[in-house]
Design goal:
alpha/beta; 2 domains; nine-stranded mixed β-sheet
Length: 326
């Protein structure tokens, strides 16, 4: 009887120790770790940069981005940055065409602008061209005015008679500047993450909210959860939230794999990391610890910063310095 009592006490003490430490008990993986850094404890700051919605703000953003990436290049700094899906859509377009979709109105010949486009042009520029009122020249001048403004020129003359050739030269200058910004951003030692707003397909997903499943589009609950195809469309590392606990367990237990080199998942349940089929999973925000290799520990913090604030900081390595690749 006394021996059984001792066993029960030891069992209770052991259970309490596990609860206090919030450790997920498992054997560590004994194969050679894939990390590019030696054993140890690592801390990484990921800087989130807010990407704006309006044309004027986007144009300011890319002007500031140009300064930012050139300073990183000159100063040989390194960072890990988090930006929205919308940014990467515009990024790909700038890489291909040099101008934003919203800026196409400035590239069109003034004589081909529709009535609605002319009204939009007047709204965007908010500039008066009294000398050329009710003429095509008015809208050509407005196009030139805006393009000069984006490029930082202050020599616009509302009374001048600008030509389409003159405007074309300014457009080409803007395209060259933007594409040079893209080129520099790909040369510097910076890891870029994509912030995925919705992890699930919209027609088959449920989200986790206040410990209950709320159905997103129909009246009845949908049990099937399908990860959004967009998760597998990016070669960049991705950052996602709002993944249901059951699906987190599936990823942790390596029962399913997402086709990306690295995924950072903010959640309410787990912290730590896993490695499965060439994909790194980092879990932030939870209490229970998951850890793939005994002698590698990672702490990741995400903070919202401006370009200027980021440049004031110094980072020893980037996310890709951990896992390899660019």
């Amino acid at each position: 009887m006394k021996i059984n009592l001792i066993k029960i006490i030891l069992l209770i003490v052991g259970m309490n120790l596990i609860a206090c430490n919030n450790i997920v008990l498992k054997k560590y993986t004994i194969e050679t770790p894939p990390f590019k850094l030696g054993e140890g404890e690592y801390s990484l700051n990921i800087y989130e940069i807010k990407y704006p919605n309006t044309l004027e703000e986007k144009e300011t953003f890319f002007n500031e981005l140009d300064i930012f990436v050139n300073k990183i290049f000159i100063q040989e700094k390194k960072y890990t940055l988090l930006l929205s899906e919308e940014y990467y859509k515009d990024y790909d377009r700038l890489k291909l065409k040099g101008i934003l979709k919203e800026e196409e109105i400035f590239e069109k010949t003034a004589s081909s602008l529709t009535k609605s486009e002319r009204e939009e042009l007047e709204k965007i520029t908010n500039e008066k061209v009294e000398r050329h009122e009710n003429t095509v020249q008015k809208y050509l001048n407005l196009q030139v005015y805006h393009l000069k403004k984006v490029l930082g020129y202050d020599d616009y003359d509302p009374n001048a008679v600008y030509t389409e050739l003159y405007k074309e030269n300014i457009i080409n200058e803007l395209k060259k500047k933007r594409q040079n910004t893209i080129l520099i951003s790909e040369k510097i030692d910076v890891t870029y993450l994509v912030n995925i707003e919705e992890a699930y397909n919209g027609d088959e997903s449920i989200i986790l909210k206040e410990d209950e499943y709320y159905y997103t589009k129909n009246i009845n609950f949908i049990e099937k959860r399908v990860f959004s195809d967009i998760i597998n469309n990016y070669t960049n590392p991705i950052y996602i939230k709002n993944i249901a606990k059951d699906d987190l367990n599936i990823l942790i237990d390596k029962k399913e794999n997402i086709k990306s080199s690295c995924i950072i998942i903010y959640n309410d349940f787990f912290k730590g990391y896993r490695y499965n089929k060439n994909t790194y999973y980092f879990f932030l925000g939870g209490l229970e610890t998951v850890q793939e290799y005994e002698n590698y520990q990672f702490t990741i913090d995400i903070c919202l910063k401006s370009f200027e604030e980021i440049l004031e900081s110094e980072e020893e390595y980037t996310l890709m310095n951990f896992i390899g690749g660019k």
